[in-house]
Design goal:
Layout (H helix, E strand, L loop, with lengths): L1 H17 L3 H141 L1
Amino acid sequence: MKKSVLTALVLGAVLSVTACDDNKTSQKVEQAKASVSEAKDAVVSAAQDVKTATVEAVKETKDAVAAKAGEMKDAAAEKMVEAKEAAAEKMDTMATKAGEMKDAAAEKVAEAKETASEKMDSMASKAGEMKDAAAEKVSQAADAVSEKAAEVKEAVKERTENK
């Protein structure tokens, strides 16, 4: 479009300069002026059309970008919700596992306490038995010592009486 307008302007200028006859020249000049005026109007009209088309294209692009941004925002928000739900689910699972592990550990500790208590009872009864056995041995030893002392006493008495 611009090339044709420029061509018309240049052609008009060339014709006006190269014309020989004044009458023809003035007619040519008038024709050139009219041609230039028409070309100017055509250029203005074309520029207005281009401007309008550009404004519409920019507006459509802007609307499309805004719509796409909205879609992306919604998709990102949805992904965040999904991620939060997944994290909450994992935390619940981990809390449940921790509770189970705590219960299992408490059960093991209770079993260990019971086993230790049984061992202590067993050791206490064993110690009681050993104490009773030791007391019996001491008693037997004391009886044996008493018997020996009585025998010695009697033997000493007999010896002293025999002399």
